[in-house]
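Sample intake — Inner membrane protein
Collected from: Shewanella benthica
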Amino acid sequence: MSDTKYKLSLTLRPALIHESRLVAEQYTHLKDWKLVRDEVLKNNLLQARTESTSRTIYGEVSKRLKNLTDDELSLMTTSDSDAKQLVWLAICRQYLFTYQFAIEVLSEHFTKSRFQLYTEDYNAFFNAKAEWHSNLDNITQQSRYKAQQIMFKMLAECGLVSKDKELLQQNLSPQLRELIQLANIDDIRIYPGAEF
């Protein structure tokens, strides 16, 4: 078994695209994560009902967004079409489990013209990873089910699958493609059907 721990806290929240764009806008203006946090929480920019919820959402969003470059964050604030793909990129960079799922399941299926995604695909991937990562093997059935539900919800919110769980070819804008290639060309593989 590997000692590498998969972080599954993604199960707490879905894609949070609107919230991510809001936080990215603050960062592009302030260029300081501490100032961004203060601004977001002080003015309840995430419009959460409680301060605790606002802190939790901000914590998750900022953790993801800190994986993006300043140029990627800037693009997220100016382009609706790129925003979803950048949120997906931030999630994948934050969570190795999701990154590998995108490459080993989504892109692999697309390459083989298997466009329908099933819960069995997720379960097979999860089981294969659990053999090597003890923290996955110890997850309760309820937590595992919740993680699966959130994964499929994120895939739909980020535009990677249809409401019927059919894989959608990803067409990256030239600007987004260039930024990804500058940071790490391998990250393009998380987008089904996007070619180098």
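Post-analysis note: The mean pLDDT is 91.
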